[in-house]
Amino acid sequence: KLKVPTPADIVARKGGAPLVCLTAYTTPVAQLTDPHCDIVLVGDSVGMVLHGLPSTLGVTMEMMVLHGQAVARGLSRAMMVVDMPFGSYEESPGQAFRNAAALVAETGCAAVKLEGGVEMAPTIRHLTRRSIPVMAHIGLTPQAINTLGGYRVQGRGEDAARVLADADAVADAGAFSVVLEKVPERLADEITARLAIPTIGIGASAGCDGQILVVDDMLGLFTAFKPKFAKRYAMLGADADKAIAAYAEEVRARSFPAPEHLFGDALPEAKE
Ligand code: KIV
Ligand code: NA
C-alpha cells in the first residue's frame, strides 16, 4: 500500500511529475478517484454539482463536514483537502482557525483550501503556523462572484500584477500549494516559475505543477453548463439518461421484472 502524500510531499513534487487532482463528494466517486489521484478535493462546488444551488455561496460547514466524511471513507492513498465554505473564514484568522480545525477534526482531512490572495495572507499564515496546512486558491475565486460580477478570466493585461501579488502573498504566508483558476496561460506559467510551491491549474496552463477538474464535469454528469476548461472524458449523464429511459419503457411494457428477478413460492431447501 502506497503512503498517503503529506503537504510536505506535495511541495517536494514542485517541478516534477504533474500532480493529478480531482474533486469528489461521495464515497463511491472517491473510491474511483483514489487509485489515480495525488489529491482529492472536497470542493464547495458540491453545492452546485450535487445540491442544485445557483452558486457556491450557500454552501455550509455542515455540508462540507458530511461530504468530507463520505469522501474520507473512500480514500486510502490520495491526500484529502476540504474547501472552507463562504463565510467560514473571511471574518478573522480566529474564525478561520475555529472552522478549519472543525473540518480537520470531523473529516480527517490533511489540509483545507480557501479562496483569496493578499487579503487572506494573514489568515493563511495564522492557520499554517497552528498546524493546519492550507491550499490557496487565486485567479477566479467563485465565492467572490458578487463582487467580480461574473466568472471571467482574471489577470489579463494590467490586472496580471494583482494576480502575481496574490500568488506571492499566499506562498509567502505558507500555503503548500495554490490553485490558479481561469487565468491567462502565460501568467500561469510565470507564477509557476516564480513560486517555490506547486501551482494547480484549472483553466490555467499545462505548464502548472498539477491540474484539477470538477469530477462531475469531466465525467459528463454535470451538464447545467460547461466551462471552456472542463474537458469531458465521458458522457455518463447521457448514458444514465439512456438507462433510465430503457427502464421506463420496460416497466410500461411489463417486460421488467423478468423471471430471473423474481422469487418462487416453494420453501427454500437449497439456497436461493
Ligand atoms: O470547489 C471546487 O471544486 C474547486 C476546484 C474547482 C478548484 O475549488
Ligand atoms: Na471551491
CATH fold descriptor: TIM Barrel
* Structural domains: how many: 1
* Major sheet details: 8 strands, parallel, barrel
The distinct bound ligands, ions and cofactors come out as: 3-methyl-2-oxobutanoic acid, sodium ion
CATH superfamily: Phosphoenolpyruvate-binding domains
Outline of the structure:
With 272 residues, the chain is α/β, with parallel strands linked by helices. 37% of the residues lie in helices and 14% in strands.
Question: What is the topological layout?
Answer:
Blueprint: H1 7-12, E1 19-23, H2 27-33, E2 39-42, H3 46-49, H4 61-72, E3 79-83, H5 93-107, E4 111-115, H6 121-128, E5 134-139, H7 145-148, H8 160-172, E6 177-181, H9 185-194, E7 199-202, E8 210-213, H10 215-218, H11 236-252
Parallel strand pairs: 1-2, 1-8, 2-3, 3-4, 4-5, 5-6, 6-7, 7-8
Helix pairs in contact: 4-5, 5-6, 8-9
The structure holds 3-methyl-2-oxobutanoic acid (KIV) and sodium ion.
Features:
272 residues; alpha/beta; TIM Barrel; eight-stranded parallel beta barrel; 11 helices; 8 strands; binds 3-methyl-2-oxobutanoic acid; binds sodium ion
